[in-house]
Amino acid sequence: MQKQAISLFTLNELIRKTLDQNLSPSYWVMAEIGEFRDAVKGHAYLDLIEKTGETISAKMRANIWSYTYQSIKRKFESVTGQRIQSGMMVLALVNVRFHELYGLSLIIKDIDPNFTLGERARKRQEIIEKLQLEGLLDLNKQFVLPAVSQKVAIISSVTAAGYGDFINQLDQNGKNYKIHYRLYQASMQGKEAAVSIIAAIHEVEKQLIAEKYDLLVIIRGGGAQTDMDCFDDYVLAQTIANAALPVITGIGHERDESIADMVAHTQLKTPTAVATFILSGFSEFEEQLKSLSIRMERVTKRLLQNENNYLRDQSHLIRTLASNKLGYAKQMLDGFTRQTFGAVKHNLNLQQIRLANNHTYVRKISFSLLEKERDRLMQYDKSIKRLNPEYILTKGYTKTEINGKPIDLQELKLNDRITTFTKKQKIFSIIETIEDHDQKK
Amino acid sequence: MTKKNETLGYDKAVIRIEEIVHQMEEGSHSMDDLSKLVKEASKLIKECRLKLKMTEEEITKAFSEDE
Lengths: 441, 67
Description:
The structure holds 2 protein chains of 2 kinds. Chain A is α/β, with parallel strands linked by helices. Chain A has helices spanning 8-22, 66-80, 113-133, 161-171, 193-206, 208-211, 234-241, 259-263, 271-387, 389-394; strands at residues 27-38, 44-52, 55-64, 89-99, 103-111, 151-156, 180-185, 215-220, 247-251, 266-268, 399-402, 405-406, 417-421, 426-430. In chain A, strands 1-2-3-5-4 form a 5-stranded mixed β-barrel. A 5-stranded parallel β-sheet of chain A has the order 7-6-8-9-10. In chain A, strands 12-11-13-14 form a 4-stranded antiparallel β-sheet, with no helix packed on it. By secondary structure, chain B is mostly helical.
């Protein structure tokens, strides 16, 4: 049997006609953008793919002609804030085209940006829920920010405008606050941004102990609003959440917060805002110190005043007490003096009286003694005069002796020689007779 | 005796006078002794009187000085 053969072109023509007859003019197709490149003439060439798990299960070349592409691009970017790029899920209105020479391809007529937006939101929500489930959303918020953050690790790009603003603000803070910072370079936009930032975070953590960082800030200037997807990356969010120090984000953007913002300790709109935030910590701390200092001064003043008052009162009390005591002692002394004086005076009076009495008595006694003595002498004088033999002889009496002794004291014998004394004469005689003589007879 | 009398104090002089009075009252002395005793006693009495007078003057003077 002779084989009926047709030319390749005829076959391709057949295929094209069959497709044209059987397919609708256009289809809305859900697919992921595989490779994507802008061509020089303003066209876009891309692959649409579909994955089952990580395996590509369908793939088709596609292109967007220049005129269409410009309008799709404008609309897409204005709605989603993103460029059309590889890895993005899109809902595209396509014509299926078969060209005899170039084969099968899809001509993209339109892309619905709302689908991409919703798709991204869904994916974002999935990540957020996962982070929530893993307890990572609030993990970094557990750090207590130091009152004053003086050591700051910065993840940014040195070329980013925001970085310059940030360090200018830190350096020229007007209050001479000294902030030590070090830049850890990372790509802050595009597909590599997430991986680059993660690597930078690991680098900071490696040097954390040596550098004693207080804070990690991730900053990026305003710039295009399109490349925000890197900040919704799950692994980046995970790394930020698990970071060994508090993370502050200042990723300039207008749209809703990124997932990186959500897991960070503190999120701020711009790098400048981050700088202001750090500096506000310094001013607050300074204010606190000032306030404490004022309070301390006030309290010290009050304490000093209290002590002064207390001392003054005590001093007053002591003076009063001492004065009272002195007064009392003086009164006592006066009393004693008066008493002593009185007693002495009384005693003196007594002594004077006694002396006067004694005086009189002694005088009286003295004269009386003298008188007595005179009397005695007078008596003796009288006795002597009375006994004086001359007194007797003068009266006419005589005194007779024998041998110098009175005759009445001797035994007389006849012929004894006697001597008789008269007033004027001494008579010698001899006893002739002796007779008794009694005058009383 | 006379010399001795000069040194006698008042009290001893008085004792001597008493002694003389006592001796004279006994009457056992001779005329000569008696005369001597009288003279001694009279002298002693005179001296004692003088002493009393001086003492009186001293006492009077002493009390008048006190007053």
